[in-house]
Write a structure and sequence with these properties.
CATH topology of the domain at 38-301 in chain A: Beta-galactosidase, Chain A, domain 5
Largest interface: A-B, 40 and 40 residues
Oligomer: homodimer
Shape of chain A: globular
Number of helices of chain A: 18
Mean pLDDT of chain A: 94
Helix content of chain A: 25-40%
Largest sheet of chain A: 9 strands, antiparallel
Structural class of chain A: alpha+beta
Chain lengths: 752, 752
């Protein structure tokens, strides 16, 4: 049964409903939020979402590893399953990261190489994964707590069953781009007939981070009849210890599988020590009740997913919504108590991967529905600044890196601040943001801080002496606005004025050239002030180029902190509208799979379809959004338009399905057309925010009138502070564009 | 018996002779080099040398820890001994580093706090240390192999004896200067009645490095009758495991000390894992023969010390010489196979602490007598560049930092290159040096690279916007000369010319002001080109100041790559001589223990007493050197004038005792008056270099004439390349200055 296909949605819901039947109260017919999660969505087409078992923000993410074919999550639909490793990222691109401590149930002789198996019967729900490995005739099931993977292997073959434990395994691709992981060392000790401990030490990967060590402790529910270890490709039957000599090590346990029932194994994981890994396993899973842990994890998911409840609307959109929420809660990973670099009472999260991706949608989503979690993440970021020297822009394996564009933690902090998130030391946060803005990261320009800031702070833009100069200039300007926002809020007028002024630096790269009828584009500029002439407004780029994952048509529209200024630069509202139309209408896949103009999957364009709001045409924004969702999203395996980027893309979808969209770093949501008649959001403080769309249907998708908290409004935006103590946005929907919301254009704090 | 006092030298030699009697062949009456080593020299008066047992460049350095009173080596003469930890540095200052995995033999009840003991009968030789702990009536003896500490505890009290193992211990001072170590975590597992493993994880310390983990595995020669563990200050009798929960842990083993004879314990140490620590212990010390390991370590020392053999001369100077050589071989530490950060086939050394100190004398000394070791150290430095991004200037605990002055690995590499050291990839070394010179280290200005290089590379000096601007400018100029030297040698003329030009940047801080009759001083200069007016030529400084461990009188004479240019700036030879005279004659301790003018212990002045050579008066250099040695050096505990700085000060002494001194980074040795009639140096390639001083006596200390390899020379210098395939320098000594060597002033490669 392959459950990712649209046509089998009903079957899948039934199976999941059956599994979770104890959670449905008598008389309750409505499906639970967790039942709408389909983890297969976004596993193909470059979505690269994690497939396997995990709790929200789980440190362990046990899941199948299917070779090294640029499948960053470890998973792909085709090919053999090589085993189930315990560390994965979700939705990322570029070089690999993690894939450590791989277990594989086999039968027959022990083989180190070529032991992967074809599969059938793959199933996945939030917190549960299972597959039948046809080569070995074994059903493998996975569930997890925060730090412990729990495996159940049911051998159907009369042969004795083995479990291989590979401490040398890691996801291994990205060599051509210098982003591959490198092996450092591994160690194993078989402690008894049921226990083994050890670690895997790896460096590099996409973020080019330093060495990280994944420690484990595994315990089986039954005694092995034989065991042994290997080093590199040599088996050592009966040898219990493989100390770290810089080689790849592994071990196996063989069981009398016909007598003992299913082989269960708990694999505690730690980034501190194998002793801590054992402690994690012992504390998180005291007994051997696989189903109970599965249910517990499912309930945890359901409780978080229930922060958003919808009434009405299609099952299709509900599956999109709850899977989107699920994807938004896989990363970063909660690693409090698991930081090997310093001791702190602050929370610790790792795998910000990357904040450049997630600040636009995921952070605002968490601030809305899981404010305590978002607070802890920001405290963790500040602690990283305190001990490692810089806020992370991306971070993985306990090491900052890489910075794709700006120092975008600035945006996350400003977003939290304007929305009144408590429990954060905003004074030290401001220090950290100012360090980003003022102290060049030197040779670490891809690691942290702002590369090229010397240019930016002296000549007002990052010159072509530096890579990604266009993206950097645009994002540094936005980040400077974030600093100004926080400075103003903390009463630091001098700093506010300084950074507000710098936030207009984007205009220094604005060149009055024409392209497809539009005038004025962000353009490469040399240090001496002259322009590069050999440049194309549709030329996309990456690390070494002028733009990162973008081109000039797209990024020239990225001025979230001064859209009115951008409109003026573009020649006024009318020309701006034409420019937006050109941008969206000309979007089509080109030969590389990239769009010529708009690419829904490029984060710099995340806000762009909503920019019609700023010329008083919110209906047009909503129509664009509806078209984009229909064109690029589905509940199939290819249901995401590209990398989910740690849930950034999914969070974008969640907001639009709910009917409003955040302007990150500002206390502003733009109102769009919801996909559900009623959405109720638990704000985490005992209060709720409801979005009601009266008369909503596929035809009735235009807002005719609105009230916010009972008062009529004719503005297509509202503030978080208007709903943070509870509130209701009621929209009356109709068949045609009604020019509602055309007055009262969205403001830009803190300047208005 | 306290053996550090001069008057008991004979007794000490007798004891050591007795211990090592098997090493003296029948009929051999001469003492062995190792017998002249007195590890107590330099343990007081801030010398801070390590006292304990170690092999040359040993990874483990087990020795007594005597509280936290700014005793960087762990040792001091006064107070209690708290135990014997396994990691120490030698000769350093500032905040603490290491002091991990501490063992203490006790009797009676287990006490965690206040368990230190008074001592008596302290003895130390190369590779051996012993003391009687009077509180517990136990004799403790230590010896070591590269990675394993070997302890022998002889309990004389009928009570049962305990051994405490403190995994939470570390040297803890430097808080006031932000240079203290910080605890991260620790873990312990009692594996059997004779075995325990675990680790201590610490961060910070003098070099402000990231977390490092010291793993250990300890095995006793007899079974304990009781054992237990502790966490923080709570005892847990019978509890065998203390997983890492971010707390300080420890354990104890109790023995029936009246029945089992001495308690022996091998403590394997590793920076990789406790499995590797066990492997180290098992491989390095297979049995339990303490005396055999002691002898083996002593023989290892003797074989290295024998690279320099002297005939004649006083026992006093021989003790100085061989202890100096011993001190020069304690650091850095040989950690090949023990690098937790990357896997490499290159050698790995840690604890370059700091190259700023050691490049002037220690590196040239090793190039001369242990060229293969020096080659491996440089390969290790290049590997650090390859994986960590920058060459180290200082490094400890597997982390670069801190840079006191220049990027002085440049000097080490140039020194090796001009002396023809093979087996080094000088092309990549040059890349690494150019990175130092061109890529600002950003926020990591105290960690690596060249802070303030933006100033230096644009306006020609480091402005007062940056700390240590004076020291940096002077040393960057010297380091640029090192780059030019290597570039020329590799045939890269453009680079040679570029960096040769930059090496004159020191003149940009030369201000024609007067001080004590001398004219022209290195002076603080603002970014706009104007001078700071509030400045004193005798004002010493540290991290935050204009000079680091120096003042203008001293550092204005530090232009090793262009002494003729310096002399010209000073107004010619006559004024230069007067200036040098003023500098040395006015040197006296001031209230802070600092000298007003010359401070023999300040590395920037290491070459200065020899600068008379550059005005044709080498006799005067030699007289200064002789005066300095007599005033500041002895074979007492206070026999070093200050921090030994990883052997830098000792290496300075060794060269001068032998009668020549290196100009680091250049293929030049300046000839001085030897302290021995005959010195034979094993060059490591089967060839020898002999220095013969005919007629040498306390009176006959002036060179009258010289031959090099049989040819008369009237120049007070020679090239390494003149003696690297063997050679003899024969000096004829007489009672009065003879103006020998006044012609043929020392050249400055690569410009002459």
């Amino acid at each position: 049964m392959k459950c990712a296909e649209n046509h089998c949605l009903q079957k899948w819901l039934l199976v999941l409903g059956f599994l979770l039947i104890p959670m449905i109260l008598p008389g309750q017919s409505k499906l639970l939020p967790v039942q709408y999660v389909n983890p297969f969505i976004g596993t193909e087409n470059g979505g690269n979402v994690f497939l396997g078992a995990a709790v929200p923000f789980g440190l362990v993410k046990p899941g199948p590893d299917c070779g090294n074919n640029d499948n960053n999550s470890g998973y792909r639909q085709e090919g053999n399953i090589n085993g189930f490793s315990h560390t994965h990222v979700s939705g990322t691109g570029g070089g690999a990261k993690y894939g450590n401590i791989l277990l594989l149930p086999t039968t027959g002789d022990i083989r180190i190489k070529g032991s992967g198996s074809p599969r059938s019967g793959e199933e996945a729900y939030a917190g549960y994964y299972s597959v039948f490995l046809s080569r070995y005739q074994v059903k493998a099931e996975l569930t997890a707590t925060r730090s412990t993977g729990f495996h159940r292997y049911t051998f159907t073959n009369p042969q004795s069953g083995n479990v291989l434990i590979d401490a040398g395994h890691f996801l291994d691709f990205g060599h051509d781009w210098g982003e591959a992981q490198e092996f450092v060392g591994s160690e194993l000790h078989i402690l008894s007939n049921t226990e083994i401990a050890g670690y895997s030490r790896i460096r590099g990967g996409w973020n080019k981070g330093g060495a990280y060590t994944v420690y484990f402790y595994a315990v089986f529910n039954q005694e092995s009849i034989r065991s042994g270890t290997w080093k590199n490709e040599t088996l050592h039957p009966g040898v219990l210890d493989q100390p770290d000599t810089g080689d790849k090590t592994g071990a196996w346990f063989s069981f009398n599988s016909s007598s003992g029932g299913p082989v269960l194994v708990k694999v505690g994981i730690s980034f501190i020590s194998s002793g801590k890994a054992k402690l994690n396993a012992d504390q998180e899973i005291p007994g051997w009740d696989f189903d109970a842990i599965c249910k517990q994890t499912s309930e945890t998911w359901n409780s978080l997913l229930s922060k958003v409840e919808v009434d009405g609307g299609s099952e299709y959109y509900k599956s999109m919504l709850y899977t989107g929420l699920y994807h938004s809660m896989l990363m970063p990973t909660q690693r409090s108590g698991e930081n090997p670099k310093w001791k702190s009472t602050e929370p610790y999260y790792d795998d910000y991967y990357a904040i450049w991706d997630t600040y636009r949608t995921t952070s605002p989503l968490l601030t809305l529905i899981l404010p305590d979690t978002q607070r802890d993440m920001i405290r963790s970021m500040i602690d990283i600044y305190r001990f490692d020297g810089y806020l992370p822009d991306a971070r993985s394996g306990n090491d900052n890196g890489r910075t794709q564009g700006g120092s975008n933690s600035d945006m996350v902090i400003a977003d939290a601040f304007v929305k009144g998130l408590k429990g954060i030391d905003y004074e030290i946060a401001l220090q950290a943001m100012i360090k980003n803005a003022e102290v060049p990261p030197g040779g670490n320009e891809q690691k942290e801080g702002r590369g090229g800031i010397e240019d930016y702070n002296t000549i007002g833009y990052v010159s072509t002496n530096h890579e990604r100069a266009g993206t950097r200039t645009m994002e540094y300007a936005a980040c400077d606005f974030a600093i100004a926002t926080l400075a103003k809020g903390l009463g630091k007028t001098d700093l506010y004025e300084k950074y507000l002024k710098r936030s207009s630096n984007w205009t220094n790269l604005w060149r009055p050239v024409e392209s497809f009828g539009a005038s004025g584009f962000i353009w490469p500029r040399k240090r001496d002030g002259t322009w590069e002439e050999n440049f194309n407004t549709l030329q996309p780029g990456s690390w070494g180029d002028f733009f990162y994952e973008s081109q000039s048509w797209e990024i020239s529209l990225y001025v979230p902190h001064n859209v009115p200024g951008l409109i003026a630069k573009c020649g006024g509202a009318e020309k701006f509208e034409t420019r937006l139309d050109t941008f969206f209408i000309n979007s089509r896949p080109n030969r590389q799979g990239w769009m010529d103009f708009y690419n829904v999957n490029n984060e710099p364009g995340f806000l762009t379809p909503m920019l019609y709001h700023y010329i008083g045409k919110p209906d047009k924004s909503s129509e664009r959004i509806r078209q984009i969702i229909q064109a690029y999203f589905s509940i199939n395996r290819n249901g995401l338009p590209g990398n989910d980027d740690s849930g950034a893309m999914s969070s974008w979808l969640v907001f639009h399905l709910m009917g409003f969209f955040p302007v990150a770093g500002q206390d502003i949501y733009l109102i769009g057309a919801p996909h559900f008649p009623k959405t109720t959001i638990d704000l985490g403080n005992g209060k709720e925010f409801k979005v009601i769309a009266k008369n909503l249907s596929e035809k009735n998708r235009f807002i005719q009138s609105a009230t916010l908290n009972g008062q009529p409004i004719d503005r297509a935006w509202f503030r978080h502070t208007e709903i943070s103590n509870g509130g209701t946005l009621t929209l009356v929907m109709g068949e045609s564009a009604a020019y509602w919301g055309s007055s009262g254009l969205p403001p830009t704090d803190p300047t208005e």
